[in-house]
């Protein structure tokens, strides 16, 4: 019995280790990297807490050395997907009734495990599987996932404390029930933190989950699952299945107990899932919750008053950190003609100092793109630019996939503001720059708003406050995360809840109470202490 008021520890953002030369964390993570890299690993299906084999396996390889075999992962068949659904529903009987503080303690322990004994392993696995530099792995796999777990527990408490007013003679209560059924979480390759949070945020609120991680993130996904188990997550609460995405999705969406999807990935896939849910809507016990964060065509626009080095650095960091494989990465830039040459020159100067190679060499700022399909797609765009008359390669444009999928940071300049690379999400180390007439600031703001179907992130650089205010107004619906004099990437849990609208998703703001509210179904209870005994109202006389 719980007869006490219990408060979640007040969260603070996990400190980011710097991995400087000679530091203990640098030595430790590289040692773990070597151990994981040289050990053949097998990732099993995780259903009801058991490691299960599938009918077949696929190899895991690091993007920066694609001939090296890390191991293999098992492929689920349709029966096993149905078993995962059944396992989740069986676990729901106890999990949904567990006191919220007990659920919180599991994920708070997971956060502490990630901050301590699992920090090297989660970072090293992310460096290997997703070809992230140690800094990108640290801010993602360790710090952001830790922050998600700690802040979400705190937000859960705040949600539960949000109660309606009660008047004399009655008591009004809101009970925040988990959804009736199970949640389907689909995670992307590019952020280990997202892969953990998509399942954990729903589970924290009392839901049960079937999780399909990206085929290209399974190596680090297994570490996330290992941490959850070490923290005491009961069997069946989160079940992990890998394999044919269409088969898995169709099987899950065919279940009458499907209650919601938590998704991060491509816009096309999300729209297809939405259509399938709609076509099955009469089969479900409840109307499913649909939560998704998809693509972006994120912008930087500089006012003539903007500082040249600040804009240039925002382009270099915003466009090329993690090879531009962030949905928030800057991929279209608008520069005033009066300063564009100086800004581009500074961008090139900085890029000329950047080193590219495998992530275990900590001198490298750029590593490989995620797989051959991504490599070929970006190379095709580079070659198109080289053949077009209204655009050119300003710097970069080199590529090589003989060892790993390496593409140099590429800056394209265009005279066409509607050029394909100003509109199409490429998801790689390529940014396109358009120079506008200084006198057409307002017109260019409207151009920024209308050019893309996406509305995820964007950044405005200016030292003119009136210009900033104008941009805030004109670009009101252009970005869910809007940055002033800063790059359009790097949202921090608890500080900048993340998400966008239009074709970029449902804008349910991961890392906030807004997202957690999607995973509950409130029940209103009114208790009348002294019920009336006569139907007559005073007006009847």
Q: Can you walk through the features of this model?
A:
With 541 residues, this protein is of the alpha/beta class. The protein folds into two domains: 38-294 and 505-525, Aldehyde Dehydrogenase, Chain A, domain 1 (3-Layer(aba) Sandwich), CATH 3.40.605; 298-484, Aldehyde Dehydrogenase, Chain A, domain 2. Helix content is 39%, strand content 20%. The chain has 16 helices and 23 strands. The protein has helices spanning 24-37, 78-95, 100-115, 119-130, 134-161, 192-204, 218-230, 245-253, 267-279, 308-320, 337-351, 372-387, 420-423, 441-451, 465-474, 513-516, and strands at residues 41-43, 45-47, 50-52, 56-60, 71-75, 170-178, 182-186, 209-212, 238-240, 258-264, 289-293, 298-302, 330-336, 391-395, 399-400, 406-407, 410-414, 430-436, 454-455, 457-461, 481-484, 501-502, 520-528. The protein has a seven-stranded mixed sheet, with helices on both faces. A five-stranded parallel sheet has the order 9-8-7-10-11, sandwiched between helices. Strand 8, helix 7 and strand 9 form a beta-alpha-beta unit. It is globular.
Computed over alpha carbons, the radius of gyration is 25 Å
Count of alpha and pi helical runs: 16
Poorly predicted runs are: none
Oligomer: single chain
The largest β sheet comes out as:
7 strands, mixed
CATH architecture descriptor of the largest domain: 3-Layer(aba) Sandwich
CATH superfamily of the largest domain: Aldehyde Dehydrogenase, Chain A, domain 1
Number of domain units: 2
Strand order of the largest sheet: 14-17-18-13-12-20-21
> What's the count of strands?
23
| CATH overall fold name of the largest domain | Aldehyde Dehydrogenase, Chain A, domain 1
Q: State the CATH class of the largest domain.
A: Alpha Beta
Q: How much β-strand is present in the residues?
A: 15-25%
- Helical residues, percent: 25-40%
Q: Could you give the distance between the termini?
A: 50 Å
Shape, per Cα inertia axes: globular
Mean pLDDT: 97
Class of secondary structure makeup: alpha/beta
């Amino acid at each position: 019995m719980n007869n006490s008021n219990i408060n979640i520890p007040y969260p603070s953002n996990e400190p980011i280790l710097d991995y400087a030369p000679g530091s203990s964390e640098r030595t430790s993570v590289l040692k773990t990297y070597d151990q994981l890299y040289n050990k053949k690993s097998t990732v099993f299906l995780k259903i009801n807490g058991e490691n299960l084999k599938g009918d077949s396996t696929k190899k895991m390889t690091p993007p920066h050395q694609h001939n090296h075999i890390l191991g293999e992962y098992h492929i689920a068949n349709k029966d096993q997907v149905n078993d995962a659904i059944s396992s989740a529903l069986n676990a729901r009987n106890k999990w949904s009734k567990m006191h919220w503080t007990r659920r919180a303690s599991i994920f708070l322990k997971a956060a502490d495990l990630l901050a301590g004994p699992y920090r090297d392993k989660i970072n090293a696995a992310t460096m290997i599987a997703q070809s992230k530099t140690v800094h990108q792995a640290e801010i993602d796999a360790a710090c952001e996932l830790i922050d998600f777990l700690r802040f979400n527990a705190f937000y859960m408490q705040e949600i539960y404390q949000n109660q309606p007013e009660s008047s004399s003679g009655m008591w009004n209560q809101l009970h925040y029930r988990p959804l009736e059924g199970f949640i389907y979480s689909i995670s992307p390759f590019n952020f280990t933190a997202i892969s953990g949070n998509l399942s954990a945020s729903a589970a924290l609120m009392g839901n049960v989950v079937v999780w399909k991680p990206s085929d290209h993130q399974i190596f680090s996904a297994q570490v996330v699952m290992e941490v959850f188990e070490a923290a005491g997550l009961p069997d069946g609460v989160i079940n992990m299945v890998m394999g044919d995405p269409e088969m898995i999705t169709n099987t899950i969406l065919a279940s009458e107990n499907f209650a919601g999807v938590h998704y991060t990935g491509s816009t096309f896939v999300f729209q297809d899932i939405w259509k399938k849910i709609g076509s099955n809507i009469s089969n479900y016990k409840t109307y499913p919750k649909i939560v998704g964060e998809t693509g972006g065509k994120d912008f930087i626009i500089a006012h003539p008053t903007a500082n040249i080095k600040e804009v240039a650095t925002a382009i270099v960091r915003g466009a090329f950190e993690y090879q531009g494989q962030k949905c928030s990465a800057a991929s279209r830039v608008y520069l005033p003609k009066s300063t564009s040459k100086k800004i581009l020159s500074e961008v090139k100067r900085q890029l000329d100092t950047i080193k590219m190679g495998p992530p275990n060499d900590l001198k490298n700022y750029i590593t490989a793109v995620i797989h051959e399909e991504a490599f070929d797609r970006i190379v095709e765009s580079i070659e198109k630019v080289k053949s077009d008359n209204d655009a050119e390669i300003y710097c970069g444009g080199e590529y090589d996939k003989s060892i790993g999928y390496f593409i140099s940071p590429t800056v394209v300049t265009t005279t066409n503001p509607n050029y394909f690379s100003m509109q199409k999400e490429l998801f790689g180390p390529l940014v396109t720059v358009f120079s506008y007439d200084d006198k057409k600031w307002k017109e260019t703001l409207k151009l920024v708003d209308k050019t893309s179907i996406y509305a995820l992130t964007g950044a405005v650089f200016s030292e003119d406050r009136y210009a900033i205010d104008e941009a805030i107004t004109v670009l009101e619906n252009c970005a869910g995360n809007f940055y002033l004099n800063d790059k359009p990437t790097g949202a921090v849990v608890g500080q900048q809840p993340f998400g966008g609208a239009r074709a970029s998703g449902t804008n349910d703001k991961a890392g906030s109470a807004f997202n957690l509210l999607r995973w509950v179904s409130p029940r209103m209870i009114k208790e009348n202490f002294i019920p009336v005994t006569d139907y007559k109202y005073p007006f009847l006389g």
